[in-house]
């Protein structure tokens, strides 16, 4: 019996899709679908709109727009039920429809991912619970690629770090628990960060609760599910709080830069149609109207060309595109000329659609890359990148202050400035009190007084704070574990790599052209001990076997590093009943250590550059021999985010009105 | 032993058998004819209640009291529900043996677990005015017909949502039936109504006339799986139509003048008509057989057959399963029949047994299978044994045979025989058992308080027994008269450590019973924190509930408790409760930010969180639509901080005050520089407002419009650094294209930001001429950069001169490559003037 690979993208999306369609099928007749904007991306990934139409969806509306009309008797709401705000929005719209409409409507509410008691309570208070049939759609992980699973919780970051609301921790635990019940316990849960610890504790608690409540549900599969899995090696939880700087940096991989420039949500990006060419011409559309139109472009992880590009450093993307173009051209042309026999011709024609698709993809990515080059050539981009690189390589941050001040004076977008300032603060355990005040004043003057709130929020998130307490004159030595100390880490984990090779990367530092993301280094210190140990401290004798490096023993690397990183460190082993575990491993066959999956869960969100770095690590594992050979790395997160999003949740949107 | 075929009847070419399940079912005094009788699916309990339309003899006070009685099939009274709640219009069962009682006023009571407890709900949709006429039930819901022919469908009892179906014509309904959603084409419930001479099919959206003219139809019956429909016409004919209405399959003339009192399907193959003491069974191709009784008979349809109930006897009428026919049919030559024969010969030690085995050798495996299946379908224990023996004999002859089925059937038969025992009274057929599933069977036994049997079966079939234990404990808590300590000790002793026990449910039962202390005690044994919360709230243990909710980590639960507390407690004590619990405070803050700012303000005040309170006021100031109230709010925000002396507060306060100052200045500017003044509108098509801009933006706008004095005022008021000001002036002038002023600036000696930005910004704006003015001023730069700058301006000659001055031959040659026209000549000339190296 071959064990089913855990975290199977196709399986997870198929299940989510079936669940939703089943719910929709249960509502007879045509219906208007009102969905929360945050769910549109996931929905789009899972179900085509034409399929929804087959299931009777007439028109989609956004919950936020509050504009659902009365054209259909059935109105279906699809929203997340955790927040009182959303619940009230749903209730208000039901009330509005009921008041305004001539006909009697049938309301259905599908809560994602679960029906909450709060929603029931609020709906009841609003007097609409009795009118609506309420169901739930247990949508947890949305596969963004074969090895990337996201919960797509847009609010996770602001909830966790700004509002300290642990909802997303609970939902993450639920999602991971569901996977555990299917594929067995994670034999080991290890990680870093206070929220991460909370998540690990929750997982342990849920396990005992599931065991206690086991037979009350259907007992069959969960019985087996609660023994350690033989296919998963471990779950590594990284709390975003542990590694804010990586997120604040400008990502330099192709996918990362697309995200920085155009913003990717749920594998889709919106690009000005002048860049990628308009959508297929539609009748009745005037040329002038489309000139400033945004076009949605699907960034398809299945696209062969894109999958070679996405994780490369942007510096080499141009070359790759060039190569691809030449290959495509030669293969089409030569074939055309050389096609002599009909058999060859037929073969060529059969391949033609593939070529065309590739051509289209090539065209798209070339124009995207051109646009990104325009962006990276700007003075502002180079200046801010320079600041970032200097800070990360360990230069005295005060030397960068002039540049930052100048950038503020030049009125460049606020998020960019905030990213730089937060970067300095987070890498140096806060800013000097005087400097901080100067910058605060500068920001208020340059971007408006409403940002007093922005700055307060950033401080609350520990992104921008004075060094070591409020001007009490004490030494900057803060409580251990409350801030990350980068100075020893740079050395012990080799966070800065001067000999970075972008074209043919040999280390994850290529993703940021020098800086190796701390979070990924932590992961490496667990699953790629020898590689990392040799990187940090190359052994004197190159002929010595890799295993000989003393640094690679046990947990030393991780423990050493974790000392300097803020937040709690945790390491749980989950052993089930011994017999069952043994039985399972016998069932799974001989491949004990081979091909095990390591799940890396980013609580609070993961950046695309980190995904690229982890893919790089995973790729090494797959090819490599020795430790964890043939292993697979799966990235899970509450969402895929960037620095813009991180500071974005602090930025105050309002301004004074006259 | 009587022959197994003794109770068989041939209907057409098919056999039907009538299995006598129990005798002496009801008391002879019970006039079954005066009662309505409904049976739960899968041979479940039978509920009877007096039909109020019928007269009955007066028997004194005792019998006059009306009640709904629930019996087992064997006539054992399980529960009596006293009834004084109005006229019962319909009684029905759900698949999980919930009894539904629908009264005339549209109230539905759902009695669960065969107990006296019920959950009521109301049908609504005008049921109260028009009255419920009758109802039709299916496995998980029902449809009610109102006096005005409106149909109300309820599809779930857990959360009943009565829905009005499409409205049919309001003429009198002769009869009606439903197709359950599981078997209808549309996957939602469909109703067939006989109105006038035709039939209507009604679903949620439309009422469709099927255009029949043979009516009026007196009875309509839908086969268990919806594949056939049977109609009884007024002239005594039975029509059978396929479920999709496409074919009329048969027509049978009963030649009886009186309309039968009931018509039901027996499985999916035959239709039974029932008169008072006579039952006709009509098979396919319109052949029929008749049964006569000497007492009133009731039909209780089930998925694969029909239960017939009289005072004396409970019988089961079903089509004889194919395997059984194969084995037992008279003169059957099938291998299975031979195998059975062989096995009985073996028992008589006759050598013929072997001959027979050799005869059927090639199909022996099949014969064994058939015998096993026939045994499964058999009710008679003697024949079950014979068949299993035969199968066992047969498989011992076979070399290779998987005994899984055999073992499985043996297990199943043991269970079936146990529950068929008259004291239990669940006469299930094998088919019903399969469909009900063993888990549900155990649930049924538990509901009948047959704990021992339930536990035995659970352990025999390796099924979880937690529910049985829980049920037992709940029952114990409800009825036991022991002291609370003893009950608790007993329950804990028996159940502690068993997996899957929900102590919460037991505690809830105790709490419902009013034994609060016992409930608290029991709740301590519940391992799932989340589970305890709702009950704790019900028990008014609010703070414990909050702690448990936090422990569970489920924010929904925490929220739930908080909402509850917020409503219940005065504000001050509410804050006291959440104060010591950071998670709760965070949740309150986060939701209050969206919902209830006032609460948040109070919270910050209470906690003395001045900065945050002041920020909240700032947020409010931002949301004001006009300046005056915004300024007021700002003042408040600043005042909020006036007692705080620490550094952040001072900074904050200062910033707030500056904001107010800036806003006032902006207001002033707007007044002064409004578009009435034509000078202000220079270069701008519309007058840009100042309000809401930042200090820098204000300076930028002022400079753009040429109000240097005012801009400088802002600079000095807000101590804006010289560098920033220089940048702002540069950008403002460039964006307004005030080239002359820029050229003026070039005459200055020094610039705080150097001259390079001037060049870059102006070049970016496209004015190469003005840009080039600044090149010679960039003395800090190297030659190569300056050459590059000249080149960017298109002034190659100048670039050449620059390179020449520096005597850089390589650069000069580079420039030559780029040059064209007259510039080439000039560069050539310069090149020539450079002394050759080497």
Offer a concise description of the structure.
Chain A is of the alpha/beta class. Helix content of chain A is 50%, strand content 12%.
Commentary on this structure:
The complex is a heterodimer of chains A (658) and B (838). In chain A, helix 4 links the parallel strand 3 (74-80) and strand 4 (106-112). Chain A starts with 8 loop residues before the first helix and ends in a 10-residue tail after the last helix. Chain A has 28 helices and 15 strands. Among the domains of chain A are: 9-139, 3-Layer(aba) Sandwich (Rossmann fold), CATH 3.40.50; 254-277 and 295-376, Sec1/Munc18 (SM) protein, domain 3a (Syntaxin Binding Protein 1, Chain A, domain 2, Alpha-Beta Complex); 379-428 and 430-477, Serine Threonine Protein Phosphatase 5, Tetratricopeptide repeat (Alpha Horseshoe), CATH 1.25.40.850. By secondary structure, chain B is of the alpha+beta class. Among the domains of chain B are: 321-401, no CATH class; 413-463, no CATH class; 465-527, no CATH class. Chain B is 46% helix and 18% strand. In chain B, the strands form 7 sheets. In chain B, strands 1-2-29-28-27 form a 5-stranded antiparallel sheet, with no helix packed on it. The model of chain B is unreliable at 677-686 (pLDDT under 50). Chains A and B meet through helix 4, helix 5, helix 7, helix 8 and helix 18 of A and helix 16, helix 18, helix 20, helix 22 and helix 24 of B.
Keywords:
heterodimer; A: 658 residues; alpha/beta; Rossmann fold; Syntaxin Binding Protein 1, Chain A, domain 2; Serine Threonine Protein Phosphatase 5, Tetratricopeptide repeat; 7-stranded mixed beta sheet; 5-stranded parallel beta sheet; 50% helix; B: 838 residues; alpha+beta; 5-stranded antiparallel beta sheet; 4-stranded antiparallel beta sheet; 34 helices
